[in-house]
């Protein structure tokens, strides 16, 4: 089973930059999307295409903000939106597709760079997400993908020293990823690649992408029960259209 994740930074914008051509060529069974920026009531503008059906969760508290979605060829058993914790509903940050073999979660985690209130919100969201994932895991394994808005280790960004006090690489954010992995969630890309220089987001300024001055903040994690099923994981850094690139995961479910 082929899975993808991509922060598209506006689905309407990336649709004009080859998104659907990429999707058609990707052979993806499920493609989770983040930062779709679809306004409530406009989801029908992005209907079924090339054999893929969509589901979206839009932000209801701020126009043209956040939002997640997925295009899938394989029909899920159920589709659910948002975290159960009411403090973290409304920004359109989580879509849950349930399949017989696993729960698939595509998540756009909050950014903490707009001040202490948003950093506190981000850390609270992390904790609420972990609790929710652990509850779902009681029934079947977890696949979670998306923009975590945190680089985990110094290998995951070009300039770690100069970003030690920047949200996205703060000690408390990285410590949460330590806790997440300690609960038995596996960074799939690191099963196959231990080195640095592999990024998924580049600032639009300063020719950062052409210079590969980036951050790896987009991930696929699986709960440990699925680790033997992970066949490969990769980063599609050559795919443009957004300031992020797609990441992929193949599971052997046979």
Walk me through this protein's architecture.
- The longest helix is centred in the middle third of the chain and has 21 residues, at 116-136.
- The strands form 3 sheets. This protein has a 6-stranded mixed β-sheet with strand order 3-4-2-1-14-13, with no helix packed on it. Strands 5-6-7-8-12-9 form a 6-stranded mixed β-sheet.
- 18% of the residues lie in helices and 26% in strands.
- Helix 3 links the parallel strand 7 (103-108) and strand 8.
- The protein has 254 residues and is α+β, with helices and mostly antiparallel strands.
- The protein contains 4 helices and 14 strands.
- It has a single domain, classed as Deoxyribonuclease I, Chain A.
- The N and C termini lie close together (9 Å).
- The record marks 149 as: Transition state stabilizer.
- The active site is at residues 108, 147, 244.
- This is Exodeoxyribonuclease.
- Its EC number is 3.1.11.2.
- Belongs to the DNA repair enzymes AP/ExoA family.
Rg measurement, Å: 17 Å
CATH homologous superfamily grouping: Endonuclease/exonuclease/phosphatase
Please report the number of helical segments: 4
Q: Given the C-alpha coordinates, what overall shape results?
A: globular
Integer count of domains: 1
In terms of DSSP E residues, the strand content is 25-35%
Mean pLDDT: 97
Per the CATH scheme, the topology name is Deoxyribonuclease I, Chain A
CATH top-level class? Alpha Beta
Distance between the termini: 9 Å
Largest sheet: spatial strand order: 3-4-2-1-14-13
Q: Report the biggest beta sheet as strand number plus sense, adding barrel if it closes.
A: 6 strands, mixed
Q: Which structural class is indicated by helix and strand composition? A: alpha+beta
What is the architecture at the second tier of CATH?
Answer: 4-Layer Sandwich
Proportion of residues in helical segments = 10-25%
Counting DSSP E segments of at least 2 residues, the number of strands comes to: 14
Order of helices and strands: EHHEEEEEEHEHEEEEEE
Which stretches are low in confidence, meaning pLDDT under 50 for 5 or more residues running?
Answer: none
Site (Interaction with DNA substrate): 244
Family: Belongs to the DNA repair enzymes AP/ExoA family.
Domain Endonuclease/exonuclease/phosphatase: 5-244
Protein name: Exodeoxyribonuclease
């Amino acid at each position: 089973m082929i899975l993808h994740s991509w922060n598209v930074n506006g689905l309407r914008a990336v649709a004009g930059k080859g998104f659907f051509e990429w999707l058609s060529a990707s052979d993806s069974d499920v493609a989770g999307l983040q930062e779709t920026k679809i306004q409530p009531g406009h989801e029908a503008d992005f209907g079924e295409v090339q054999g893929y059906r969509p589901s979206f969760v839009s932000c209801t508290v701020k126009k043209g903000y956040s939002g997640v979605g997925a295009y899938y060829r394989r029909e899920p058993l159920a589709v659910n939106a948002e975290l159960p914790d009411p403090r973290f509903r409304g920004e359109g940050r989580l879509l849950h597709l349930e399949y017989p073999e696993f729960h698939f979660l595509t998540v756009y985690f909050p950014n903490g760079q707009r001040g202490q209130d948003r950093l506190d919100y981000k850390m609270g969201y992390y904790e609420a997400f972990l609790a929710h994932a652990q509850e779902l895991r009681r029934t079947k394994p977890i696949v979670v993908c998306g923009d975590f808005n945190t680089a985990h280790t110094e290998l995951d960004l070009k300039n770690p020293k100069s970003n030690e006090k920047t949200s996205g690489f703060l000690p408390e954010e990285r410590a949460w990823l330590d806790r997440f992995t300690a609960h038995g969630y596996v960074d799939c890309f690191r099963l196959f690649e231990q080195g640095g220089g592999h990024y998924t987001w580049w600032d639009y300024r300063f020719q950062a992408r052409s210079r590969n001055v980036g951050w790896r903040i987009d991930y696929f994690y699986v709960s440990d029960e699925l680790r033997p099923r992970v066949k490969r994981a990769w980063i599609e850094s050559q795919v443009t259209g957004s300031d992020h690139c797609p990441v992929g995961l193949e599971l052997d479910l046979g």
